[in-house]
Amino acid sequence: MHRARIASSRLSRLGSKCFESKLPRLQSPLIRAAASFEPSRSRTMQFSTTTTRSTDAKSLQDLYDTAGPHVHPALGRITEGVMTKGHGSYVDYSDGRRYLDFTCGIGVTNLGHAHPKVSGAAAEQCMNLVHSQCSIALHEPYLRLIEGLIPIMPDPSLDSFFFWNSGSEAVEGAIKMARSVTGKQNIISMQGAYHGRTYGAMAVTKSKTIYSEGTAPLMPGVFTIPYPYWHQCGLPRDTPTEDLTAHCLNQLDLLLKQQTAPQDTAAIIIEPVLGEGGYVPAPSAFLQGLREVCTQNDILLIIDEVQSGMGRTGDYWAISESGVRPDILLTAKGLGNGFPISGIITRTEISSKMKKGSMGGTYAGNAVSCAAAVEVLKTFKRENVLVNVKQREKELFSALKAVQADQGVKGLIWDVRGKGLMVAVEFAKNERGKESVPKDMSKRVAQKCIDKGMLILTTSVFEVIRFIPPLNITKEDMAKGCQIFAEAVKEVIREG
Length: 496
Ligand SMILES: Cc1ncc(COP(=O)(O)O)c(C=O)c1O
Description:
It comes from Coprinellus micaceus (Glistening ink-cap mushroom). The protein has 496 residues and is of the alpha/beta class.
């Protein structure tokens, strides 16, 4: 068995002991400190007695007390205190808390925290060449990464690579590329989409107002159509997928006739699985419909796989199932397993229309991040990660469906959906009717999971919890996470 696997199963045994512990709840000084500058969030937490404490917890606490209040207050966080270590599917905090991580740092550490091979490759690269600057010279990991990505592209036409640091930058680059090569301005994005926090990315983000509230004017020339998700279409919950697809394609047709003519429209940007908008896979027929419209009208199709890509859905790319050819494919997050790297991938026929020097960036395609990403690709093969995703996907769905069917849950889970290990549970929330879960259900369930030793996130403006466990998670850890979730849901419903 691989060393990391052995370590991870040993840790998972330790973890389960800590969750089952009946020790009294402790209130750490660190949490008290946190409460002093986040007074609205009073919580109790159950701590592990078996975790590694920071060797210098006292000075870390002093640091937290003194530097913590200087962290920008607009940065939201789901836990307090200092995370000191990540190992496989677990993270440790300086006060002894240990959590099973079903967030992967929002879909990033997909091969588990501090994967020994990936971190090892980065460390080795650090001792050779940290930075070469892509406008000065190419380095070996840059080229190796291209070599590793070419065979897994969802379409062989995707043969031109530009690496950057974040998902938002990839979105910016794609918009720039689309405008530059088409000579057209307008971009169509989806209601509910999330593409990032920089100005162009914010402009095409339509999942929550908080991301751009009070920051106008945003980049102009952005138009939206609904994503085939019943909420976004204002249609009943049981609307058949074909009808949602037809509705959205019809809206696109109208948009191109009424608001942005094809000759003014540079690109359509879409997440093949809506991420921050609720973890909703787009029907293949919808993606195929977009492809057709783009091809007919010389509009570029930008597929944003920043969250859904790199194996998250059980294939390297979520778009593959539809057979749709992206004109531009965006990747980030899982590509570096925590080392910052993103990719804008297109075909040479498109990229060659841009002037030399129009793309670049100080840290674009950093050597250490590229070396980590090369090792990520190797690890997928060596550890049969995609096979694990398929196996764990079945277990996750069956556990969540069992919660949905549980009598104690009283039919208050409307939906269990997703692909691979990008899965969501949507709770019933009907403003006017009777069929509603207790107020703030998803937030309360997430908080209860955290109290029980598992990090998990909500998503969207609806009552949705998302599951983003590591792609190489063990069967035992998956079962443990599902158990924690089931208990949390039932407890919140009982509390009302
Ligand atoms: C689909 C999608 N696109 C773009 C981004 C922005 O990526 P980043 O946060 O790395 O800028 C995200 C981040 O969550 C995302 O999910």
